[in-house]
């Protein structure tokens, strides 16, 4: 994999990790798919596969993984891979709404990335760029929010923007729903971690979407504390309206 560029490498790792997770599901009888077992096995297996691939292909780069130990030495590194081996793990085995996130941050800016959604049989990457959405936004903007925040974010957006609101799990799935034009924006009013947002942001920006905090500020990555206050991924014409409601 050393001959791949960063975009290709992100896509290759996201895709192969997604396939390994699908294989794990297929090889686990449904009666063994209880809570608290399979998603942890998936988290660990996916994490080790990603770290092994990155160590082999980019031995000098740092890695921040949801499932890894973070000693914060990455903060002083220029090139850092920020990964979520299994995003939306509570849906793993129950719905198609889980994803694999692989992103490369260079000096705090996402420069390459991929999001695999095996349940939709697709991996999106920063190269080749996703096809931009050409259709216009309907009379009611369609906005996807997090299940855990639907009572607050969802209600707010419904009332202020007359939005049609839906809620699903997995930040990657919600972001890719915007990328493929199912919805016009993804809004998350609470905090989330950099591994939740980094690869989705890299891919969404490559698709021509705008990504920022809910207060309109720039997103920062590879911070010492990887917690981030809120996320908007939206079609450009909707961003100001959403920020006005959410900030
Ligand atoms: Mg995860």
Short description:
This protein is of the alpha/beta class and 247 residues long.
Layout of helices and strands, plus pairs?
Layout: H1 6-26, H2 38-57, E1 62-65, E2 79-87, E3 99-106, E4 109-117, E5 122-125, E6 142-146, H3 150-161, E7 164-168, H4 171-179, E8 185-193, H5 194-206, E9 210-212, E10 227-234, H6 239-246
Helix pairs in contact: 1-2, 3-6, 4-5
Magnesium ion (MG) is lined by residues 43, 66, 84-87, 89.
Labels describing this entry:
247 residues; alpha/beta; Fructose-1,6-Bisphosphatase, Chain A, domain 1; 2 domains; 6 helices; 34% helix; globular; binds magnesium ion
User: Strand order, biggest sheet?
Assistant: 1-2-3-4-5
CATH topology assignment of the largest domain:
Fructose-1,6-Bisphosphatase, Chain A, domain 1
Count of all domains: 2
Radius of gyration: 17 Å
Give the fraction of residues assigned to helices: 25-40%
Q: Report the span from N to C terminus.
A: 43 Å
The proportion of strand residues reads 25-35%
The first-level CATH class name of the largest domain? Alpha Beta
Secondary-structure-derived class: alpha/beta
Major sheet: 5 strands, mixed
**Would you tell me the overall average pLDDT?**
95
CATH level 4 superfamily of the largest domain: Fructose-1,6-Bisphosphatase, subunit A, domain 1
How does the overall form come out from the CA principal axes?
A: globular
At CATH level 2, the architecture of the largest domain is 2-Layer Sandwich
Query: Which ligands, by name, code or SMILES, are bound?
Result: magnesium ion
């Amino acid at each position: 994999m050393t001959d791949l560029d960063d975009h290709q490498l992100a896509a290759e790792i996201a895709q192969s990790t997604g396939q390994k997770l699908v294989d794990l599901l297929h090889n686990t009888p449904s009666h063994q798919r209880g809570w608290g077992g399979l998603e942890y096995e998936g988290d660990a297996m996916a994490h080790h596969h990603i770290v092994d691939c990155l160590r082999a292909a980019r031995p000098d780069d740092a890695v921040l993984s949801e499932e890894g130990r973070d000693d914060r030495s990455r903060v002083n590194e220029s090139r850092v891979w920020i990964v979520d081996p299994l995003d939306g793990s509570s849906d793993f085995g129950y719905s198609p709404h889980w994803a694999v996130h692989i992103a490369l941050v260079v000096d705090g800016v996402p420069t390459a990335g991929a999001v695999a959604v095996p349940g939709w049989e697709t991996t999106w990457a920063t190269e080749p760029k996703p096809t931009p959405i050409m259709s216009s936004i309907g009379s009611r903007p369609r906005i996807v929010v997090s299940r855990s925040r639907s009572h607050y974010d969802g209600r707010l957006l419904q009332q202020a923007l007359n939005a049609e609101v839906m809620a699903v799990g997995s930040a990657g799935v919600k972001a890719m729903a915007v990328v493929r034009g199912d919805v016009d924006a993804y809004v998350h009013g609470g905090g989330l971690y950099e591994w939740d947002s980094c690869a989705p942001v890299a891919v969404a920006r490559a698709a021509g979407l705008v990504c920022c905090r809910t207060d309109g500020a720039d997103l920062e990555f590879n911070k010492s504390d990887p917690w981030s206050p809120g996320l908007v991924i939206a079609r450009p014409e909707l961003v100001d309206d959403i920020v006005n409601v959410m900030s």
